[in-house]
Amino acid sequence: MDDTSGAPTREHPARRRVVPTPAELASWRSFLRAHAGITKQLETELEGEQQLSLAAYDVLVQLSEAPDHRLRMTELADAVLLSRSGVTRLVDRLERVGLVARAKVADDGRGVTARLTDTGYDRLRTAAHTHLRGVRAHFVERLDADDLAALERIMRRLVPQRS
């Protein structure tokens, strides 16, 4: 509000409050703690029962859901939220144990795809039991249907829109 006339004024972007309020920071920190805690539990269970990291599991999932079970390495890096070098190292390890195979892109001399092998698909199916059991125990069962719907709606708003 304008102090003299009482009429609303447009706030200059540079004058907007930058520092979150204590309540806003508490929400942010709760989100971070929940994500970190659940991720750590899921990682521990996958590694303990399946000898598979959560990142490796995610690579297998992304490839299983892709057309022909293959993605360009750049697309895979974006899908699993790893750096290009990080996904390259991870695919190297998965390739060594036969879960993933790489191939050159026919019409692009520099392009490389990662493809889920039959062994990788079988390994994913086995690991999915551990992972989905953990998702249910550490996430789904702690919330009611209204909480889950609200959280999904909120998280959808926070995901950056791709152009």
UniProtKB/TrEMBL annotation:
Signal peptide: none
GO molecular function ontology, one term from the record: DNA binding
The HTH marR-type domain, residue ranges: 1-160
A biological process term (GO) from this entry: response to stress
SUPFAM superfamilies (alphabetical): Winged helix' DNA-binding domain (SSF46785)
Ranges in coiled-coil conformation: none
Keywords from the UniProt entry: DNA-binding
Protein's name in the database: DNA-binding MarR family transcriptional regulator
